[in-house]
Structure formats: C-alpha cells, structure tokens
Amino acid sequence: MSKEMIGLDIGAHSIKLVGLRATSQGFFLSHAGIKEIPYGEEAGEANFIGEVIKALYRELGLNPGKVRLVCSGPGLHIRRITLPSMPKAELKEAIRWEMKGQLPLPVESIQTEYYVLGELTENEAKKLDLIIIACPKTQIERTLAIAAKAGLRPTHLGVAPFALWNALENFQGLAQEEGVALIDIGAEKTGIYILQDRILQFSREITPAGTDITQAVQEGLDPGPDPHLLHARAEKIKRQIGIPLKGPYPKIEGENISLSKLMFAVRPVLEKLAAEIGRSLDYYRNHIPGGRVDRLLLTGGGASLKNMDSYLADELHLPVERFNPLAQIPYDANKIASSFLDEIGPAFTMAAGTALGQPKKIELLPVKEPFIAKITRGKTPFVLAASVVGLIFFGMVWNMNAQLVNLKKDYETKMAQLQELERMPAKLSALKEKENLMKRDLKLFSAVMEVPFSFQEVLQEIRNVVPANVTLTLLDVQPKVRLAKEEAPPVKEGKEIQISGLAFGNNQQCLTALAQMIEHLEKSSLFRNVKLVSAEENKLYTRAGIQFEMVGEIDLEGRNKKERP
C-alpha cells in the first residue's frame, strides 16, 4: 500500500484536512474532512485548537502522526527580487540584508526563505531571480505549538501561495503564457495570487473576507429573544442564500428580513471586495512587463458561496470559476460523499496543495543535520577513529558516573524519609492542637452564613444585558479594596466586576447601547453602583465603534435576600 500524505490547513475559523496516496494512475483521495472552530474561539490558545484537530482526526478515523502544514496570515510577506549569483552559504545572509528595509518588523524576529525561479544575465553579469518569503517567528512557533498539542509530527511547514501554486499545477495545469489569478477567499483575509508563464508573479492579501460578509448579514437581522445566536443565524443565511443577484426578492423563511434588505446590507462589502481585487489586477497589468490576467479561479471557503463567481465575473469583466482540486481525484464513495466534495471542495485547495510535497516549496521547518554528518564533516579517517574511541571511553565514564549519582540520590532520599518519620509525633501533636483551636473558633461564627456567588451567575446576568452591537473583550471579578487610614493594611469589601469591550455603530448608537447596558445591570439583583469608567473611539477596525470600560459592585446582600425564603 502506498504511503498516505496528510495536508492540514489551520484556518482562522476552521481546520481542513486532506489525505492523498500516490498510485500508478495518479493521486487517490483517502481522507477529506473539515472541523469548524466554535465562534468566539478564533484567538484561542494552542491547547484549544489542538483539541479541535484531535476531534477532526477522530471523526476521520485517523491516528495523529506525520503531517504537512501550511503557514498563512497577515504577517507573511512575499517579495520578488534579483541578486547577483553567489554561493548558497552567502545567499541567505544577503537576502536578510536586502529585506531589512522592506519589512515592518525587525529582521531578527523574522525567518526568511527563498525559492530560485531561474538565472538572468544583465550587462554580462549573472543574477538570480528569487521569490523571498518572510514569516514572523512567532507565527511559525504558534503553528508548531498547535501541532504539538494535537500530537502531530510535522514533516513540512510551507506557505499559502506555494500550496495553492502546487495545487493548481497538479490538479488543473497551467498554459505557458496564460495569466491566472487565484482568489483565495478565507474567513479573515482574501489572498490574491497571480501566476503567469507557470510562475508565481504576484501575491497580496486584502480584506474584506468571509467574516465581513457574515457580519453584514448579522447587522441586518433582528436580534430577537436570543441575541447570542445572531452570528449562527447570519452564517446559516449566508450559506443558504449566498449572494442574491436579481429580484424579485422573497422573504427568508423563519427570519424577519427580505432578500432585498439582505442584499442592501451585504452590497458594500461585496463592492469593496471586487474593487480591491480589481485594483490588484490593474496594478499587476500596469507594473509587470507583459502582465496579463486571462481568468480568475476562486478557492477557499468563500468560493462556495452561491453566485460569488457570477458576481465577480460581472464586476471584473473576466471569466470566473470555482477551483475544486478534488473534483477529478478518485476516492472511496463509502467514506466520502460526492455532494460534500462538490459543495465545499474549493475550501480544501490549500490543504491538498500542502499534502502534495512537490519540489516547488518553501520550507519553514528547522533543518536538523544528522549526527554522523556532524562528526564526519571535514574529518580524516584517523581523526574519525580517534573520535569513535573517545566517544566509547566517554560513554563508559558517563555511565559509571550516572550510577554513582543515582546511588547518592537514593541514599539522600532514604535519609530524608527517615528524618521525616522522626518528626511525625511532633507534627501530629501540633495538628491536634490546631484542630482544637479551630473547633473553638468555629463556635464563634454565626449560624447564618452568606451564600457565596458563582461566576456562572455573573455570566448569565451579563449575557442577558449585552446589546447586539456590543462585543465584550474582558469580564473580570476581583475583591473590592478600600484603603484604610494611615499605615493600616487595605480592607477588602465584597466583590467588584470589571467589564471592557467594543460598541459598534455611530456615537448615538454606541452611547445608547452603553446606557441600556448600565440600566439593566443596575436593575439586576446581582449588581449595584455600575458606572462607565472610560469610552473612547476605536480605530483598529474598519467599522466605527467605541472602546469602553465599566465597573460595578456585586451586590451579595441583595442576592442573598432574594435567595432566602
């Protein structure tokens, strides 16, 4: 049986896995699966994402093992440069100096790799035509940490443009002079990758993306009695309806919004997406000699939205089609449903390209040199023999020393246990005396004790009062401290809740939402003295909003009175 190659794409909102086997007839699709990351956990730590990957492996009947990974995100930078021809040992350092002034981060915090496209001759001097990849080391470390938490052993860590490049060449093919733009519509970003003459010529990442379309649908919906389900409703509508292009627009079953209103809410996002893609294509045509784009291929989760290809074709005046790399690969129909591949096949493009293991690749994994190679590099046979003898002697000495250390540790452990046993009677006597003191002190307490609050109560109350256009970023409960007079220590008085978050909309909408939130908290039996500490404009997002912070006291007395019969 041929060896299976597993490609894993760890996205912002979902994990995609593709398993391929190379056969004499071509590739065979052995596994394909996707696992959504629960909404609100996008920025989860490696432990949580690792558990999602484990769940995906269990669903597909796979055991964690070797895997090929892809690194993507806004921190990834791609450049095409030319440098004088030089030995490989000097080339990497020359690339680091060349990129130093072109990156927004210190070059020491970024790992740079290169791919040689070919050799040029300019003024009788040979030069190298290179694609440079610069990736933050923190991004690489996070990807590897997630893999470690999932019990995986990475054999390759590549980058998104090269994974898509390999997928396109192997599953569809490229004509020599054809210009193809791959539009990868993900959850948080949209990647634009242009290939011409079978070479990656242009790379750019833009917004909006899939999450922005969901947010636009969400803003057009009535929150209803369950505002926490608003995102799930918007995502369901987006997947069912897609992009309504022509009227008349009927009502959406089960929702208080028509398709015409939905299109009105989504249109600004779609227009911005089409405009950004159009600007990128124009830049490529005008700045790259001989640059041309003959057609567009849509990949990623957003490519499966109904009418997305038709909408972009009308806006950009180019042929647009969905690129499904798994459409022509044979597979076991008992394990994988054809409808599943037809519906979301484009979402697996990056995972499929990563699984291939083709020579067109960028390797971000650290290279481990074999131990024997380190020993034998530059050694004569006599020096090698002496090294082997020295290693054997060193091993014998080290083994004897390890045995002596273990015996010494065992002796010290036994002596410590003996001393501990000798101190036991005194400890028992002290514990008995402490027990008597505690019994005496307990008699002084009142029979009526205050019922402690639970954090679950706080979460329940907060969930009921948060408006639809407010997103919480911090919810913390701490002891309320009052400073005593003079040099006396601080005095703790009950509990205090701290709430931070973002309110989206214009100033009136934001302030109204915050006022409603404070009013509802004050009416609750669990809080009192709730006040707004700060509110300032937030410029980190494309949408208008206010970043705020409020504090209040947890009213244990009011809650206890409510609970007592």
List keywords for this structure.
Alpha-Beta Plaits, 565 residues, alpha+beta, 5-stranded mixed sheet, 27% strand, Nucleotidyltransferase, domain 5
Report on the structure:
- The protein has helices at residues 46-60, 88-99, 137-149, 160-171, 210-219, 230-241, 259-287, 308-316, 338-344, 349-356, 371-376, 381-442, 455-465, 507-523, 556-563, and strands at 4-10, 14-23, 26-36, 66-71, 77-84, 110-122, 125-136, 153-159, 179-185, 190-196, 199-206, 295-299, 320-322, 470-482, 491-504, 527-537, 545-554.
- By secondary structure, the chain is α+β, with helices and mostly antiparallel strands.
- The chain is globular.
- It starts with a strand and ends with a helix.
CATH topology of the domain at 176-322: Nucleotidyltransferase, domain 5
State mean pLDDT (0 to 100 scale). Answer: 84
Question: What is the level-2 CATH architecture name of the domain at 176-322?
Answer: 2-Layer Sandwich
Q: What is the CATH class designation of the domain at 176-322?
A: Alpha Beta
Largest sheet: 5 strands, mixed
Radius of gyration: 31 Å
CATH superfamily of the domain at 176-322: ATPase, nucleotide binding domain
Inertia-based shape:
globular
Give the structural class.
alpha+beta
Strand order of the largest sheet: 3-2-1-4-8
pLDDT < 50 stretches: 445-451
Tell me the span between the first and last alpha carbons. 71 Å
| Count of helical stretches | 15
Strand content: 25-35%
**Quick one: how many beta strands?**
17
Helix content percent band: 40-55%
